[in-house]
Amino acid sequence: MSLNYTELLLPRIPQEITDFILAEGNKRDPSTYSVERAPQDSYTDMYEWFALPPEFITWFRANISPNRYFGVQVIKKNLPIHRDYGSNVKFNYLVQAGNTGVETVFYNDDMVENEAIVLEEHKWYILSVQELHNIRGLIDGNYRLGITSRIAKNNRI
User: Fold this and answer.
1) Phi, psi at residue 82, to the nearest 5°?
2) How many domains does the structure of the chain reveal?
3) 130 lies in which domain range?
4) Tens of pLDDT along 24-83?
5) Fewest C-beta in 10 Å: which of 29, 50, 87, 105?
6) Whether pTM exceeds 0.85
7) Alpha helices, DSSP H only, in the chain?
8) In 3-state terms, what secondary structure has residue 131?
């Protein structure tokens, strides 16, 4: 049993939403990346977050969680070891893994790897993002697209 992630048995995202995410996410320009309330040393050349249209948010609130905000994350490069800024726990759902074998890797405070997982597309996960973690194995030029939502921020739900 993992302390860093768990798979959830929640419904698959409808094709209409998946198609929107693929179309919008795959045309993103990494030179315009920004991170919501990111610190100065953020990874803006590697990561972007963008909002979903209100009609899609309605589906997430009716089927996943009524009081969470869901957005799309675009990862274009392997992420270095980090903790997420302002979040403890997040929902995560991969629409596009990027390529086979991309791993989410968790580390202890001494930067020693303690767990690695290949998240599957079209499955819901809860990730403990206050733990040190990174993304590795993403081939340059590929996109990792997913849905994300904070479950806990600053140790509060």
Assistant:
1) -160, 170
2) 1
3) 5-151
4) 988 766 444 444 434 445 566 788 889 999 999 999 999 999 999 899 999 989 999 999
5) 29
6) yes
7) 15-25, 54-63
8) coil
